[in-house]
Specification:
It is a single chain. With 568 residues, this protein is α+β, with helices and mostly antiparallel strands. It folds into 3 domains: 115 residues, Galactose-binding domain-like (Jelly Rolls), CATH 2.60.120.260; 73 residues, Immunoglobulin-like, CATH 2.60.40.10; 288 residues, TIM Barrel, CATH 3.20.20. It contains 9 helices and 30 strands. The strands form 6 sheets. The chain has an 8-stranded parallel β-barrel with strand order 20-21-23-24-25-26-29-30, surrounded by 4 helices. Strands 1, 3, 4, 6, 9 and 11 form a 6-stranded antiparallel sheet that branches. A 5-stranded antiparallel sheet has the order 2-5-10-7-8, with helices on one face. A hairpin with a 6-residue loop joins strand 21 and strand 22. Helix 3 packs parallel to helix 4, helix 6 packs parallel to helix 7 and helix 7 runs parallel beside helix 9. One of its GO terms (biological process) is polysaccharide catabolic process.
């Protein structure tokens, strides 16, 4: 059904809004010039450090806030209301016949930046709502007798509040006074290690006045850049010491490095021995679909991680439960199941509960459902002895709240928690996809991503070429996206069906799987695609399922298992 807005004195129509946007866009096609050495920022109180001094906001719409800020300790927050678009303006002294660059950093709701009274062509620019700071910039030229202009920001009717910081009017000095330009910040102090896991080190440091960001160095090499005063460096080797330093940055440059601190990753711990460097994951079916019915004790010894499929959704959003299919599994009892989990753990295996599957209907899309998910999975871990959780949500997920859920679960379960993921190929084509975002968000607590290289259409490889399933190139070129997209090699595995009956399409022989593993880990047995480097730390492989593997005489685990465990 179509919906229309009616023009009235109290309502802006959609057509009016669209026309305004078009006009704004037409005014943004400008070329931002390079400031000369003599140029100054003619705006005063450009960072709102002195409240609203020098600024006037319509209808009391503006105020200063301490968060979020881009630099310094304050920023403008202006809230449109009714017929007011939250316009905040300042009169700026300028020189006649001169060119100026107008800029500001904005976030939040729709935000506009413009100038009037130029004596030539007044200009403006805008951006839709943004959850992070975004720079707006345009240029204007003053008329032959223009000595002052009015610069302004405003939002849009009925939209959310916008934030602005670091307004600038760069050009010849108009004589009205200026804010001092940025200077290179000092080196951060107070650098300390705030926490460690077996694969990460968390750091904190003191705020540096005037800094807009910070760069973290590990053993002298830049590893990450952040806007706040903390960072977690991931993808590290267990039981290893690293040296860390931090610098502060802003528009003027980068500070000297801070004094170094040493962070040492932990030795992996948990029920039974730690996972081997290279591991094989297999899904165990808690149902009978024609594959060999197994008790957990029957699962082949080559499997290092056993994912119990599946936990089920409940009527409580985000919450899951697990019910052993005793009848379908030949009278397998809960007590036997728990005992088998303990026996596998004693043999060095990890047993996780898998959430999702093709027909899974678990949804985590807000804070409440994230809490419910974490609490219910942790309850299952306590009840059955699971080592962690596998995320196999094939109908989409929300990166923000799944991240929140898994971090909450980690805080409950501790550093021994095992988290595996089994996205489809389409889910890992880009780091902007929700599955990929989630994996990167929890990189410091993530065990492995075993993407499903089956039931897939043709996909892009990391070289931008299209590959079809069923070949070494399909496996290696798609795995390369994850390996070059900031996942550690130890967090990447290849997921394939154990037999032709294990999936609708995409089965390849174990020899193809092994060739792909060799190509990625050692640079040998590649197809036409050659990865840009080797990844000897590659975690291994996964299959659906241990049951279909058993149906086929354990041909998959018998061939792939020893090969994985023999990787360098």
């Amino acid at each position: 059904m179509d919906h229309f807005l009616v023009m009235s004195p109290h309502r802006r129509s959609l057509r009016f809004w669209s026309g305004a946007v078009t006009a704004a866009l037409a005014l943004t096609v400008t070329t931002v010039g390079q400031a000369s050495a003599a140029d100054v920022n003619n705006a005063r109180n450009a960072g709102f450090e002195s409240g609203l001094s020098d600024w006037t906001c319509s209808a009391g719409s503006g105020t200063t806030v301490s968060s979020p800020v881009r630099t310094g300790t304050a920023a403008l927050r202006a809230t449109p209301s009714g017929q007011d678009n939250a316009r905040c303006a300042q009169t700026v002294r300028v020189k006649p016949g001169s060119t100026y660059t107008l800029g500001a950093w904005v976030r939040g709701g729709y935000a506009y930046l413009g100038v009037t009274g130029t004596g030539t062509t007044d200009v403006s620019t805008w951006t839709p709502d943004s959850s992070s700071w975004k720079q707006l910039s345009t240029t204007f030229t003053t008329g032959s007798s223009t000595t002052s202009v009015t610069v302004y920001t405003h939002g849009w009717y009925g939209q959310a509040a916008y934030y602005a910081d670091d307004v600038s009017v760069f050009g010849p000095d108009g004589g009205g006074g200026t804010d001092p330009g940025p200077t290179i910040p000092s080196a951060p102090g107070g650098l300390n290690v705030s926490g460690t896991t077996s694969s990460s080190v968390s750091l904190v440091w003191n705020t540096v006045p005037g800094a807009t960001g910070y760069t973290v160095y590990r053993d002298g090499t830049k590893v990450t850049a952040v806007s706040g005063t903390s960072a977690t460096v991931t993808g590290l080797a267990a039981s290893t010491s690293y040296s860390f330093q931090v610098t502060a940055t802003n528009g003027a440059g980068e500070s000297p490095k801070s004094p170094a601190v040493t962070g040492t990753t932990k030795t992996p711990s948990g029920p039974g021995p730690a996972l081997p460097k290279h591991a094989v994951t297999g899904y165990w079916q808690n149902f009978d679909n024609g594959a060999t019915v197994q008790k957990l004790a029957d699962v082949q010894s080559q499997y290092d991680i056993i994912a119990v499929a599946f936990a089920d959704a409940t009527s409580t959003p985000g919450a899951v439960t697990f019910t052993l299919d005793s009848a379908g599994l030949g009278g397998y009892t809960v007590d036997q199941f728990k005992a088998d989990i303990r026996a596998k753990q004693a043999a060095g295996k990890k047993v996780v509960v898998s959430v999702g599957g093709e027909r899974g209907a678990v949804t985590v899309n807000d804070a409440a459902s994230a809490t419910n998910f974490a609490n219910s999975v942790y309850s299952l871990m306590q009840t059955y002895g699971f080592d962690g959780v596998d995320i196999d949500l094939e109908n989409g997920l929300n990166a923000t709240y799944m991240t929140q859920a898994l971090r909450s679960l980690s805080s409950k379960a501790g550093s021994s928690l095992v988290i595996t993921m089994a996205p489809q190929t389409i889910d890992m084509q880009s780091t902007s996809n929700a599955y990929f975002q989630t994996a990167l968000n929890i990189k410091d607590i993530l065990t492995v991503v075993n993407m499903q290289y089956y039931n897939s259409g043709s996909m892009l490889g990391c070289d931008g070429k299209v590959y079809s399933q069923g070949s070494v190139d399909f496996l290696t070129a798609l795995a390369c996206i994850q390996l070059e997209g900031s996942l550690a090699p130890s967090q990447v595995g290849l997921g394939l069906p154990a037999s032709t009956r294990g999936a609708g399409s995409g089965y390849v022989s174990p020899s193809v799987v092994n060739n792909a593993l060799d190509c990625l880990a050692k640079g040998t047995n590649c197809g036409s695609f050659k990865p840009p480097r080797t990844y000897p730390g590659l975690r291994g492989a996964m299959t659906w399922s241990t049951n279909w593997d058993a149906t086929a005489g354990n041909a998959w685990s018998g061939a792939v298992g020893p090969h994985v465990h023999g990787l360098p």
